Amino acid sequence: MTLVAEPKAAARTPHPLRAEAVRGFAPFAGAAVLLTVGVMLAGSSARWQGGWAETASRTHNALLIALPLAAAAGCWQGGRERRRRTDELWGTVVRAPLVRLLASALPVALWAAAGYLVAAGLAMLATWPYSRGDGPRLALLPGDAVALAAAALAGHVVGRVAPSRLAAPLLAMAGYVGLGIVATARTGYGVHLNPAFPVLDSELPVWWQPWAMAVWTGGPALAAALAYAARRRVTALLPLAAALAAGTLLVQSGNALWHPDPLARRQVCDTSTTPAVCVSARYPGMLPQVRDALSGITGRLKGVRNLPVRWEDRDGDPHADKARLPMLTPLGWSVVRGRLTDREQYAWEAVVALAGHMECNGPNPRMSRVDDAVEHYLAPSPAEKDFDDADAHGTAAQRAELRDRRSARAHLAAMGDDERREWLSAYFATRGDCDPEEVPSL
Q1: What is the pLDDT of residues 164-203, one digit of tens each?
Q2: pLDDT tens digits, one per residue of 64-119
Q3: What is the pTM of this model?
Q4: What is the 3-state secondary structure (H, E, C) of the chain?
Q5: Of 61, 224, 45, whose CA–CA distance to 127 is shortest?
């Protein structure tokens, strides 16, 4: 009996898109975007880590560098066949020109977008342990990812057309300069059409803005690819028309594309103290820290009248019955990674705002001495000793002023509890009054 060997199964040829995505230049492009955005975020981590809104805005603002980088990566990939001198050989294959272009361009575009999304995900993971409220802000990510993919695709077409090896770096530099110029403008169409326009952490986009931006950025890139390689180049008009419609919508909407974060306008308060302590609803987890930092002040103010109703963590001039707390934002100053950086400084600034004499024009020696005594009793400045030492070694006038300040401090500290409460009640009755004769003497 004769045995006939079965023919071996033909080796499965890998899809060209998979080969480019796994073994080509594309993974390096994605790694470059990931590394670039990661380094930018790491260098400023104190200013966003712990705040979800700050994390989202810093990640988005990294597009100023990431978009030109993605375009340069696409351009370098687009000029690969010319550098290898195989472009004429590829022209003889059966595969359609558009298929060949997309098989080479799409992996770079997708890897660039993936690198950015991974960097955004890592930034959110870095924020999560230090978050003090709110939640992840994901609204801008779809538009940002599409913009990066579109930059890589458009750069690929430029690489196919431009014969020079310098096309990629020149495109990156031109993209950075162009985006930077538009980003610094405060008026004009570029404000609403620039995918890398800086975003404030106190603002939110309307729900459709990222999707309209995705169409606006993706449409021209797809139109360029179709115009270059499609058999029916008239099809390039379809994505171009969609981009034009999206751009018109963005421009006509204007400032209505963004609205203030409603959480930034609300306050979360602890009313167990007098004055009550309030912080922004974006950071409710900071309230225990702020309350503890001010506990020495509120403890000494028990029984004192004429105090403001509450401290508020809000920008702008407070109402007459409220005092302004040192702002928790921008992160990186009073707060770093969910913790107050200097509780003594924070408490002293809160006392200065409580007195309400900051807006008085020109320091009056008598009022300054009284304010200094109150600040020294409630929450002395961390720099108080340094200023006293400097005056102690200064001129005769400075030494005399130092003696008067110390005398006022000692007088207030030597009062009995009831007498001090009455004096402080009279002092806070003059909040916001810049007439030094109205301030009780020491």
Answers
A1: 889 999 999 999 999 988 888 766 667 889 999 998 888 9
A2: 999 999 999 999 998 877 776 655 555 555 567 788 888 889 999 999 999 999 99
A3: 0.87
A4: CCCCCCCCCCCCCCCHHHHHHHHCCHHHHHHHHHHHHHHHHHHCHHHCCCCHHHHHHHHHHCHHHHHHHHHHHHHHHHCHHHHHCCHHHHCCCCCCHHHHHHHHHHHHHHHHHHHHHHHHHHHHHHHHHHCCCCCCCCCCHHHHHHHHHHHHHHHHHHHHHCCCCCHHHHHHHHHHHHHHHHHHCCCCCHHHHCCCCCCCCCEEECCCHHHHHHHHHHHHHHHHHHHHHCCCHHHHHHHHHHHHHHHHHHHHHHHHHEEECHHHHCEEEECCCCCEEEEECCCHHHHHHHHHHCHHHHHHCCCCCCCCCEEECCCCCCCCCEEECCCCCCCCCCEECCEECCHHHHHHHHHHHHHCCCCCCCCCHHHHHHHHHHHHHHCCCCCHHHHHHHHHCCCHHHHHHHHHHHHHHHHHHHCCHHHHHHHHHHHHCCCCCCCHHHCCCC
A5: 45
Token match 């770093």: residue?
Answer: 336
